Predict the structure.
Amino acid sequence: MKYQNVKAKPITVIQALEKGIQTKTAQGCSERFIKDAKRIVTLWERYESEQQIKNLTLDKLHPLHIRNFLVRPNWSAKTQRTVKSTLSPLLTEFKPHLVQSIKLKKPTSTLHKPFDNINEILESIKTYNNHLYLCCLMTYGCLLRPHREIRELTWGDFSDNLKYIHLSGNRNKSGRNRIVPVPSYVRDLLIKGEPHHNIFSGRQQPLNQDYFKTLWGRFKRQSNLLEQDQTLYSFRHTGAIEIFKRTGSITKLQKAMGHS
């Protein structure tokens, strides 16, 4: 009896992405990456629906599909690059160089103009929202980045006396372990909770990633103190200037900011 060879059905892009997520999960990738990867699957499903190319298979996936997925008028150059960096490792097993072959525009640098009236700004924020005030004060005094490093802080990241914050390499942009001193004016606001609880939410889960961005936008709209190009990161830059004024040392400033 002769058996006919059954041709394997081509794998779809969605199936490839989901398999990529399984692989990365098994490799122990961070929860943040896995969450972003699952978001990519949702975005790709939406893209296929919009372009009327549902169930696109890998053998028919071309660079133009990837480019049209990444380059959109409502996505900044930075967002496009971020999505690309998440998408690429998910398809590496199937199309090793396809995503990397797509060239994107470099994001333009954002100017974070320092504050000349830092005390006045902080007092205004203090009356507006306590969470935003603590975030801004820590961005200024601890030189941590607001949207991830500060937002994700747990009480277990602090020393027992609250004088230091210990951040592992996978928790900060530099990729290196950091020990950050906490100024007394920040410590005065802290009441230590359970080690695994987030300092803002009071739960194990941190507040959503746009929490401080949204709060800052609302404060900015009602404030008459802020100037153009002043952002949450302006507190970090203002704090950095203060350190350099006191020490005159680029090396000390570099270490304080966690720069490589």
